[in-house]
Design goal:
- This protein is mainly α and about 130 residues long.
- The chain has one domain.
- Helices cover about 75% and strands about 0% of the residues.
- Helix 1 packs across helix 6, helix 3 packs antiparallel against helix 4 and helix 5 runs antiparallel to helix 6.
- The two termini are about 15 Å apart.
- Keywords: Membrane, Signal, Transmembrane, Transmembrane helix.
- It comes from Streptomyces vulcanius.
Length: about 130
């Protein structure tokens, strides 16, 4: 399978794995939910996990891939404030944890670009199975 054909499946796998962890181990995600959001953090953790699972399914299916990949790019932008909050909250943690939290921030850019490239590589191929 050529690399360009694997890319959507790898993105779907990343989204699915992240989505599952929101349900399997929600506590770390709860702490990243900005306080300005209404309702309990756990509801947002579960909602974002469900969104990642739905996006994973959409990206995996050729028929919905383009729209789902564009939605994934928007999702990656939308969760950026939670990543910033985590980095700020972790600034007093041990260096490896602090480095991981701050290191995640610039990773959002390639994730957004990856999702957009999956959407654009699907141009003209929607509806294929």
């Amino acid at each position: 399978m050529p690399r360009s054909e694997r890319s959507p499946l790898l993105l779907a796998g990343l989204l699915a794995a992240a989505g599952v962890t929101h349900f399997a181990a929600p506590r770390p995600y709860d702490t990243t939910i900005p306080r300005a959001l209404p309702g309990p953090p756990r509801a947002w953790t579960y909602a974002s996990g469900a969104a990642e699972l739905a996006l994973a399914a959409g990206v995996a299916l050729p028929r919905t891939r383009k729209v789902a990949a564009l939605a994934t790019a928007a999702f990656f932008v939308g969760v950026f404030p939670a990543n910033v909050k985590m980095a700020l909250d972790w600034r007093d943690r041990p260096t490896p944890l602090k480095a991981a939290a701050f290191g995640r921030l610039p990773l959002q850019v390639p994730l957004v670009l990856w999702a957009r490239s999956v959407a654009h590589s699907t141009e003209g191929r929607s509806g294929q199975s």
